[in-house]
Amino acid sequence: MDKIVKDREYMCPQCGADEDLQTEDWYFDDNTAIFEMYCPKCGKQWREYFLMKYDGYGCDHRVYDEHGEDCGV
């Protein structure tokens, strides 16, 4: 069996499955999101880490980018 190289989100690090994965729980800490994951295909459990960054905001039915510029949406 070839070794699985996990190089993207929502992919089981044990069997390589990328469908029907379950998010068991999640946490937010400063600018990090942590997802507790489970693969029903092989039973593997793991955590996935995501870095979050400010990307803009919405107000009065308009959307603005991270620089405060109107996105026209």
Brief overview, please?
By secondary structure, the protein is mainly β. The protein has strands at residues 22-29, 32-38, 45-51, 57-59, 62-64.
The major beta sheet can be summarized as:
3 strands, antiparallel
**Class from helix and strand fractions:** mainly beta
Shape estimate: elongated
Overall pLDDT metric: 93
Give the N-terminus to C-terminus distance in angstroms.
Answer: 49 Å
Low-confidence stretches: none
Number of helices: 0
Percent of sequence in beta strands: 35-45%
Q: Which range best describes the helical content: under 10%, 10-25%, 25-40%, 40-55%, 55-70% or over 70%?
A: under 10%
- Secondary structure tally: strands: 5
Across the major sheet, the strand order is 1-2-3
Descriptive account of the structure:
- The N and C termini lie far apart (49 Å).
- With 73 residues, the chain is mainly β.
- The protein has no helices and 5 strands.
- The mean pLDDT is 93.
- The strands form 2 sheets. A 3-stranded antiparallel β-sheet has the order 1-2-3, with no helix packed on it. The protein has a two-stranded antiparallel ribbon with strand order 4-5.
- Helix content is 0%, strand content 38%.
- Strand 1 and strand 2 form a beta hairpin.
